[in-house]
Amino acid sequence: MARYDLGVAYFAVGKYAEAREAFEEVLRLSPEDLFAAYFLGRVDLAEGDLDQAIRRLEAVSKGKPVADELYYLGSAYFRKGEFDKAIRTLKQAAIAKPGDYRIPFCSGDVTRNQERLRRAGKSMSFLKSFTVLTKQRRERSSNVSSRWRPSQRKKLKRSAGGFWVGMIPPSL
Prior knowledge:
This protein is an all-alpha fold. It is about 75% helix and about 0% strand.
């Protein structure tokens, strides 16, 4: 029990390496200790090891709720970009801990990011179609201008004040 308390103290002050050692020692002595596994998942999350944090927090969340592991699991999914899993997990967290004020905030962040990605996807599809159209226009203008004699191209260039009229120059 002293190692667990030491791990919690290290975790509270941000000494994650020492906290990890303490919690791993607790799990070596008592492999079924869900609180130590929960804190190891939080240490992984704090250090940015999202895959390991998800594995640990999923294992802890399978049984009876220990603490706020569902919130942190949803947060890990969110940080990893797995928004559907994040929403599903945060809904479970809201049912398990209805008074946890952090859950709606995290859910809102997930929803906003989903909306941004949806809008970005629309923008990307527009840009792709625009790029295709631009490429087609360049090809057409290149084909037309290549049929002209050099004297005609010079005449067109001079008449437009040095600019190509109605088309993109083939060199672009």
